[in-house]
Amino acid sequence: MVSTRAAVLHGPGQDFKIETVEIDHPRAGEVLVDLRACGLCHSDEHARTGDMPMPHYPLICGHEGAGVVEEVGPGVTSVQPGDHVALSFVPSCGACQWCRTGRAFLCNDGAKMFAIGMMTDGRIAHRLGDQPVSRYTQLGAFAERQLLAETSIVKVDPEIPFTAAALVSCGVATGFGSAVNRAEVKPGDTVAVLGIGGIGVSAVQGARIAGARQVFAVDPVEFKREQALRLGATHAFASLAEATEEIRRLTDGVMCTSVICAYSVMHSELLEPALALTAKDGTCVITAVAPITQKQADVNLFMLAMSNKQIRGCLYGSQSPRVAIPKLLDLYTAGILKLDELVTRTYTLDQVNEGYADLAAGQILRGALVF
């Protein structure tokens, strides 16, 4: 067995507790990773608040991670000890219909994302005393070491800083892809991004890099609006009401080619105002996670049809992790995509609760645990 310190969640509404978890050595198709950095993504907060109920506790959260391969099991071919890797909460089995057709972000192994056993063989390989421990999206990156399926890691250039590799493994890939892949932003487009966290500001960068003429950022927190303007937004607004009025004036009533919903939590009443910002024949992309119990949303279906608009869901930026992660890191090394600027503050593993308190207070754009 291998021992590791990890931030463990024992139930919704509770704080993370730093505890020692025992994990197996790698078996077939598995790797042991020495974690070096992990982003504080709001998706993990959904597990803590209960917006996304987890099937099993105790639970190790964290899914936006990067580290060094320490040990590999039989049959592992894509990495070896010493390789640097980014984690991917979306696995890539390479064999299902979705992987074979270039849509690994919809890999069938994603159905095992919240299973308590290993993705490889279903066994219990993580324990806290005599209790089985689950891992958020089969990763559990709020830990100093972690046992993972080979299908959940992507090899990266060892010259890339660990925080940068961690960020592209989830938030940046999701936000950037929301603009570039799902909204299909083109040169000259007008784009609105609603909610400027790690995902939203990455959508702003994606829209800028794709050639959008105007990028409107909407967030009530002044600090986040300032960061959006620094990273590519042309205008920033504190509220949807203010944004709607000004965007109507700035676009001569045409409104936005695409609108990207990147709220910390997506609620049904936010959809219709987003559609009001969307131009005729435009696209409204829903990237933000809604509470799982919210099963309906009010939409003016007459106007949706008569204006020829689209509502699109978006998972992982609608691009395969093994394609997205290297491409985004290439943009980063070329100085085109800004990643270092996203990390407002770093924390130790023991400060994970402090990090999420800062996130809730709107004091950070992205926080990162650094091991």
From TrEMBL:
The keyword NAD applies. One of its GO terms (biological process) is formaldehyde catabolic process. This is S-(Hydroxymethyl)glutathione dehydrogenase / alcohol dehydrogenase. It comes from the Bacteria. InterPro entries: ADH-like_C, ADH-like_N, ADH_Zn_actinomycetes, ADH_Zn_CS, ER, GroES-like_sf, NAD(P)-bd_dom_sf. NCBIfam families: Rxyl_3153. GO terms for molecular function: S-(hydroxymethyl)glutathione dehydrogenase [NAD(P)+] activity; zinc ion binding. GO terms for cellular component: cytosol. Residues 13-371 form the Enoyl reductase (ER) domain. PANTHER family: ALCOHOL DEHYDROGENASE, ALCOHOL DEHYDROGENASE CLASS-3.
